[in-house]
Amino acid sequence: GTTKPLKDLKTAKETAEKIGYPILIKAAGGGGGKGMRIIKSNQELKNAMERAKAEATKAFSDDRIYMEKYLEEPHHIEIQVIADNHDNVVSLGERECSIQRRYQKIIEEPPSPFIDSNIRDSLSQAAIQITRSCHYSGAGTVEFLVDKQQNYYFLEMNTRLQVEHPITEMVTGIDLVKEQIQVATGEKLSFTQDDIKPSGYAMECRVYAEDGFNNFAPSTGVIREMTVPHGLGVRLDEGVRTGQEITPYYDSLLGKLITWGDDRQIALGRMCRALSEFHIAGIETTLPFCHRVFLHPT
Fold first, then answer.
1. From the candidates 160, 206, 235, 292, which is the catalytic residue?
2. Which of 120, 143, 132, 119 has the alpha carbon at shortest distance from 90?
3. Residue 160 falls in the annotated catalytic set
4. How far apart are CA 271 and CA 195, in angstroms?
5. Is 41 exposed, middle or buried (0-12, 13-18, 19+ CB in 10 A)?
6. pLDDT digits (tens, 9 = 90+) for 148-171
7. d(CA 287, CA 62)
8. What's the pLDDT at 158?
């Protein structure tokens, strides 16, 4: 891929031919799939660049775009890292984030059922090196795409705590928010790499105010009723209450439902039970869609 923004169509064409189609054009200031286009041939390039630039300007006030190879059937695997100001960098393992809508994650789980221990170690080492090389401090996520042959490619680094951090907390027993605050006050990490011994399996589904069976159309209105699940191995990080109005002015994420189990089947069973008990009335949510995904044999 390119490391500098694409200047013009001529440069873009030359770069695309060098990388080889299909390619992706992406907004440099972007995220969440905005300003992103899949391009399969030279003929599509001009129009796609113009549209990506316009979308990026509108969303991020930044029209810079870059290009990378489009990988078919990839898995989106990310590594949670945390670093302090005393040269300590630790990897807390991976999260499998391949179930997405509009290039945004909707279901995540650690450990990934797709990769083996060799790839896991390689990804962790690469993430630590990337984190160290840019003198990073705090919690961050190094994201990779892993193709069918288990070749991996660096995607980006999210220099913050991510939405899906609770599943890593569930399998490692580490409070990432607390550690991040302690790092910011100049303290050392309270653990070393050798202390990280992930246990069990966790899963998360993001509860959006969207209709999962109507192309994820946003839903607004008042939450008339809300019944939330409880029980062993169930965690809910939510930001809404009964009677609250859901407006179109903010991100549509209402909360995150997380389950943990000794093995993947237990975590999955708890998730299905929790989803069957979780009801929100007054607006459409992704709860029924997520439940359908978790029940799917694949």
1. 160
2. 132
3. yes
4. 28
5. exposed
6. 888 999 999 999 999 999 999 999
7. 34
8. 95
Token output for 240? 């809404």
Per-residue confidence (pLDDT) for residue 102, from 0 to 100: 85
For residues 253 and 240, the answer to whether their CB atoms sit within 8 Å is no
Other CB atoms within a 10 A radius of the CB of residue 29 amount to 16
Q: What pLDDT is recorded for position 141?
A: 98
Q: Which pLDDT score is estimated for 32?
A: 66
Question: SS3 letters for the chain?
Answer: CCCCCCCCHHHHHHHHHHHCCCEEEEECCCCCCCCCEEECCHHHHHHHHHHHHHHHHHHHCCCCEEEEECCCCCEEEEEEEEECCCCCEEEEEEEEEEEEECCEEEEEECCCCCCCHHHHHHHHHHHHHHHHHCCCCEEEEEEEEECCCCCEEEEEEECCCCCCHHHHHHHHCCCHHHHHHHHHCCCCCCCCHHHCCCCCEEEEEEEECEECCCCCEECCEECCEEECCCCCCEEEEECCCCCCEECCCCCCEEEEEEEEECCHHHHHHHHHHHHHHCEEECCCCCHHHHHHHHHCCC
* The residue to which tokens 């220099």 are assigned: 159
pLDDT of residue 274: 98
Q: Six-digit token pair at 105? A: 């994650």
**Residue with tokens 């044999």, as numbered in its chain:** 297
State pLDDT tens for residues 88-109: 999 999 999 999 998 899 999 9
> Nearest to residue 257, comparing CAs of 281, 245, 273?
273
Residues in the chain predicted with pLDDT less than 70, given as ranges, are 31-32
